[in-house]
Amino acid sequence: MAEIETPPPGRQTDTWLEPGKTNVQVVYILYLAGFIIGITPLIGIVLAYVNRGRAEAWIETHYTWAIRTFWIGLLYGLISFVLAFVLVGFLLMLATAVWFILRCIFGLQALTRDEPMKNPQSWVL
Q: At 63, phi and psi to the nearest 5?
């Protein structure tokens, strides 16, 4: 008697790449990992841009928050770097790092409570 071969199951897409809560968590974690592995925020911003506009409205606020966190953090970082030549920039670098970390933490906290970001267009916390 011949064995009947069953076709292999179809490859399931990784859910962390699809727009939604898990993807936004990955973006925030990639941002935070950037303090150890410098390139990960670039991966995070790409994921945020690719999935923005494809998720529920409350998740969209997190994508906006994450994208703005990246670009504003980059701006603050460049200003801090330039001002480091007059020594005040080192304090600004520390303040920028704390600001960046806090925005990621606030985003993760709101995400775990299934809440939208209250003011995703904000420059501050």
A: -60, -45
Tell me, what amino acid is at 13?
Answer: T
Rounded to whole angstroms, what are the CA distances from 17 to 51, 54, 69, 88? 8, 12, 20, 40
**Full-prediction pTM beyond 0.70?**
yes
Burial class (CB in 10 A: 0-12, 13-18, 19+), 62: buried
Long-range Cβ contacts of 6-14 (<8 Å, 24+ apart): none
Which one, of 89, 88, 99, 19, lies nearest residue 55 by Cα? 19
Q: Give pLDDT tens digits for 7-62.
A: 555 555 567 778 889 999 999 999 999 999 999 999 999 999 999 999 999 999 99
Between helices 57-83 and 40-51, what is the axis angle to 10°? 140
